[in-house]
Every structure is written in structure tokens, then in C-alpha cells.
Amino acid sequence: MHEVQTSGRRSGAPLFWTVALVATVIDAVSKFLLEHMEVAPPVRIAAALLPLPGNIALMVLILRAIRRLDEFQQRIQLEAVAFGFLATAIAVFVYGYLQKALATGPLRPWLVYLFMAVTYGIGYLAAARRYR
Amino acid sequence: MRNRIHVLRAEKEWTQARLAEEIGVSRQAIVAIENGKYDPALPLAFKIARAFGKTIEEVFLWENPPVQKNTPWRKET
After folding, report:
1. How many alpha carbons fall within 13 Å on the CB side of residue B13?
2. CA 20 to 30 Å from A105, out of A7, A15, A37, B31?
3. Is any Cβ of chain A less than 8 angstroms from the Cβ of B38?
4. Count of A–B CB contacts within 8 Å?
5. Which residues of A touch B29 (CB under 8 A)?
6. What is the second-level CATH architecture of the domain B2-61?
7. A44, A68, A92 — which closes off a domain?
8. Are A60 and A16 contained in the same domain?
């Protein structure tokens, strides 16, 4: 995310990438525990919820970064996020109907995240180009 | 909305980056405002005007403002 200091506060980029790295490691550990370890159901639930704090911390850091942007960049971000969110919603909706038509297999969550990231990027470029 | 930012910048010999730094926004924002692609909110408009030592009306020009019926200075036809 493009970040600009507008209020004299220091950049949160190093903290963001540190938390992102820690969250990714925790996510991988959680996935490993769930796929390769034979553990009791309560432990499985705990392992499944393990990535949650890191992901919430990432969300908070992203929201803080957006609040630090100037009003113009917030507008660009709004248009990019709106495009990504709506395009993903439509895609998931269409995918659901294709599933009912037996044209596609089960929906994989990582595919949704990837689609959302790509459409956010397209939305960002389109918005930035529009105001150039 | 038109604006005189380009002229005022030239008078002060400021680059877009310098103006952006003066008022604490991105250069991207200055480019969009200067090209008339984005109209700033009032606080930012005030900051830009004050950076040049001008009033908002001296920097931003609203073309074809709508005339309100109860405006006292409206010329009756």
C-alpha cells in the first residue's frame, strides 16, 4: 500500500511487515498442526484460531495506515477497495451458480483472496489513472 | 472548479513536490488538484491558499456557480 506521511508521524511500514511475517509464520504453523498432527478436538480448534490475533493486528495496522493518507489518496484507496470488494462479491456469486450448474468444483478460499488482491490492484491503477 | 495553483507556484518558483511538502500531502494530490481532476475539501483548500498567502477565492475559481433564488445581490430580470 502506498503510504504518505501527512501528519508528521513516523512510517508504520517496518512494523507492518514484521507483523505480516509473524502472522504468516503462525498461519503456516497452524496449517501444519491441522494437517499433520493427530491432536484432540479442543487443540485442533485452538490451532485453527491461532492465526486470528495476527490477522486482526494486520487489519488494524492497515486501517491506521489508511488514516495517515491524505484525502486524495484516501479517495484512491476507497475506489480501489470498492472495486475489489464488489468485483469479488460478483465473482463469488457467479461461481456459486456455476457450482450449482456443476460446471466448477468447490470454491477455494485462497482463490478468493487472490482475486480480491488482483481486482484491488486493478481498481487502484484505474483510480490513479483517472485523476492523473 | 478551476484554480491558479500553477501560476502561483511559478511565482514562488515552487515545484509540485515543494508545495506538497509545505501543506503535508502527496505530490500525486497536488498534480490531481492542479489539473482540475480532483476538488479538495475545504481544509485542504485553505491550506493551499494559505501556503501562497492568498484567500481561497484567489486560488480556486468556481465556474458557472448556481444562482440561488433568495440571493440578495441577484439582478432581477
Report:
1. 0
2. A37
3. yes
4. 42
5. 70-73
6. Orthogonal Bundle (1.10)
7. A68
8. yes
Pairwise CB contact (< 8 Å): B40 & A8: no
What are A102's three cell numbers?
Answer: 456443476
| Nearest residue to B24 via CA among B47, B54, B41, B1 | B47
Residue-wise pLDDT for B36-53, tens only, equals 999 999 999 999 999 999
Half-sphere exposure of A112 toward its Cβ, with a 13 Å CA cutoff?
15
CA neighbor of A58 nearest in space, from A28, A15, A111: A15
Domain that holds residue A118: 70-132
Q: Where are the beta strands (DSSP E) in chain A?
A: none
Cβ atoms of B45 and B55 within 8 Å: the answer is no
The radius of gyration of chain A from alpha carbons, rounded to an integer in Å, stands at 18
Task: Please check whether residues A28 and A4 belong to one and the same domain.
Answer: yes
pTM of the model: 0.77
Select from B29, B33, B37 the Cβ nearest to the Cβ of A73. Answer: B29
- How do the pLDDT tens digits run along chain A, 132 residues long? 444 444 445 567 888 899 999 999 999 999 888 888 888 888 889 989 999 999 999 999 999 999 999 999 999 999 999 999 999 999 999 999 999 898 888 888 889 999 999 999 999 999 999 988
Written as one letter, the residue type at A63 is L
Give Cβ neighbours of residue A46 (< 8 Å, ≥ 6 apart): none
- In the structure grid, which three cell numbers stand for residue A122, read together? 486493478
Residue given cell 513516523 in the structure block: A10
Query: B70 vs chain A: nearest CA distance in angstroms?
Result: 33
